[in-house]
Each structure stands twice: as structure tokens, then as C-alpha cells.
Amino acid sequence: MSENLNKLSIWDKEHSGKRRVCMLMVTHACNLNCSYCYETHKNSANMTFDLAKEIIATEAKLVESNDKFDELQVDFMGGEPLMNFPLIQQIVEWLKNGGIDVPWICFASTNATLLSPEIKEWFRLNKRYIVLGASYDGTGNMQSKNRGTDSFDIDLEFFHELWPEQTLQMTISKETLPFLAEGVLSVQRKGYELNASLAQGVDWTVADAQLYREQLSILKDEYLKDTSLHPLNRLTRYVDVFNLAPTERRQIHGCGSGLNMITYDCDGSRYGCHMFTPVVLGKDKAIGVDAVEWDKPDLMADKFCETCVLRRFCPTCPGFNYKYRGDFAKRDQRWCSLVLAEAMTACEFQIERIAMMESLSSEDAEHAQVAVKAYEILKHLDIANSISPYIIN
After folding, report:
1. What residues form DSSP beta bridges with 172?
2. 49-65 and 85-96 are packed helices; what angle lies between their axes, rounded to 10 degrees?
3. Which residues pair with 21 in a beta bridge?
4. How many CB atoms lie within 10 A of CB 325?
5. Tens of pLDDT along 167-198?
6. In contact, 183 and 142? CB cutoff 8 Å
7. Quick one: DSSP state of residue 202?
8. In angstroms, what CA-CA distances link 209 with 134, 174, 185, 238, 385?
9. Contact 99, 55 (CB under 8 A)
10. Is the pTM of this model over 0.85?
11. Element (H or E) spanning 120, and its range?
12. How far apart are CA 108 and CA 127, in angstroms?
């Protein structure tokens, strides 16, 4: 393969955007027992090299023949993918030696606990071909609460050295929510960037939402005081709110499951994404990619949310919806007050930050207009007393 085909990277802003994502469940095994883990059917299954090559070659042919795609991203998923590191190593070496004829990049998300010196050195030599993203939940105390072990020796500098623009990924559990601001700032003040998301399938309450608001507000104030810190993603999202008729700007399926991406299980079975595989749903309940109309317009439309002003801001996932509620569209209503808390604090942060700027770019100005418009709606709501769906008359 010519060298220029391997310059693509998952954070590369210059790539075409026409990317096919092929996820390989290289193993069902994991060395941790995280409190928020949704993979409730883990086992010792592993994918073989011959099967992986066959799958990737098939996906490369699809990229070649389909005008929708120009490039292929191969994601390694588990369990913990480094439990089957030899397979990852074999695949990358095969690809480097001309395994396929389309531009490609590999990616794996890891809990970062299995990186031996030898494995680290291999990744250093192959950092242009495979990117590692680390899952990291904050302080040692937060890691212990979430990960089921007090033994951690995670080298964050290794990730920062090799892939400086790749963010760490934090999951906020009910147990670590009280320490959110402390955990985020402890990582950022060491020079690392991270994104955060709330754990799924958790019995979130209004009291949790009020605490979430407090923790986000602490972060908001710190970012306004110290502009060298990169604000957490929970505070920088566009707060897209509106009060339109249910038929206007409906909830959409935007994650690419079954359309731009596909997941292959250890045995080669095909799924829309990893959330529909046996390791998540169990062998009897797993849903193959061909059993779903992925382009159905109302696949993600929850009737409960049709009139809510936050229905486009509120995150939703067909996989989590199906696992926990048996319906691709049915959102977790326990999230409502937390989403409101996040939207309100994000608006306040964006408005206050822009007010501090001496000049505004066109992008900043647009962001400001969206935040001001949203806050005019949201300020009439109350986390403790407003009932979802949130409707403003």
C-alpha cells in the first residue's frame, strides 16, 4: 500500500468524511468489572485472524464500489480489546503490508490497564496506523468506585505523547457524580483533555440532577477564571431548543448504526453496532443488522418527547434504548432532569464566556445567539419542579 494512504487519522479534519466504520468484536473478555458496564454477557470468546482478514477485505470492497465511502476505519472492540492484542497486532501488520487497497485507519478504546512496556513500544512504532483512546474516570478514588479495583497504573502521558489530540473518555456514574468537577480539573490541570458522558441504565434522580448542576457550575466558574483550560464537552454543546409542532424537526437517527457503520461479532455475525451483539443483549436477544430498517425516518422518534424543547439536545441511543427499555426509540425519562441541568448550565457558560470576549468571530456570534435564545426558554423551567416533557407555552 502506498504510504499516502495511511495518513488518515480519526481526528484528521481534512479527511473526506465519507468513512465506513467496521467494528470488530475481537474479544468478549475483560479484566475489569466496571459498575456502569452494559456488557452483561461477557465470556472468553475471541475472533480469529483469518476471519478478521476476510471481514476487512469484504468491507474494503464495499468502500471501493460504493460512492458513499472513500475510506475505511477499523475499530477494535471488546470486552477489553487488548485482551486479544495479538490479533490487533496481526491485523495492523497485515494492513501495513498492503492487505487492502483503500485508505484506512484503525482505532481501539481501552481501559489502559494492560499496556505492558512491549505493547507500548509496538504502539509507538505504529501510531500512524492505529489510535488508542483511553477510558479514564478521574481521580484514583473515582476510578476505584467505577472500576471495581484499587489497582491502577495508567500512563496518561503515553496517550498524550502518541496521540495528543485524542481525548480521554470519562463515564460519570452515580458514585462519582459528587466528585465530577474535582476529577475533571485534576486531569485537565495535568495537560490532558477529556470528554464525559453520563452512565446509562442508572437510576438517576432529581437530586442527582441538582448535584450535576452544582458540579457543572463549579466547572463553569473555573473555566471562566482560567481560560487556559479547555471546557468540558458537556458545557460547549449547542443547546438546540425550540417549541415547534411535533411534525417539525423530528428526532433523528444520526449515529450511523447499520448505515455508515457495522459490527462483526467474534463469529462473524453482523450487527448494526456493538450494542446489538450477544455480549450486550445475550445470544437469544441479539439483533442482526438485516432485521432493522435503519433508514426508517421515525426509528428514533419517542412520542413522549415530541413536544419537548430539549428533544434534539437530549442524547439518545437506539442500542441503550433497546437494551434497557425494549424499544429503539424509548428514551430513559430518568435522564430528563439531568439533561435540563446540563442545558441550563451550558447556556450560562456560553453566554458568560462570550461576554468576556473582546471580539467575536462569526462562529462565536452564532453560538452566542443560540445560547441566548435557548436560555430565554430554559430560564422558565425548574429542575426540581418542572415536569418533562419540557414544554413552554
Report:
1. 198
2. 40
3. 73, 261
4. 15
5. 999 999 999 999 999 999 999 999 999 999 99
6. yes
7. -
8. 27, 11, 20, 20, 12
9. no
10. yes
11. helix 117-125
12. 12
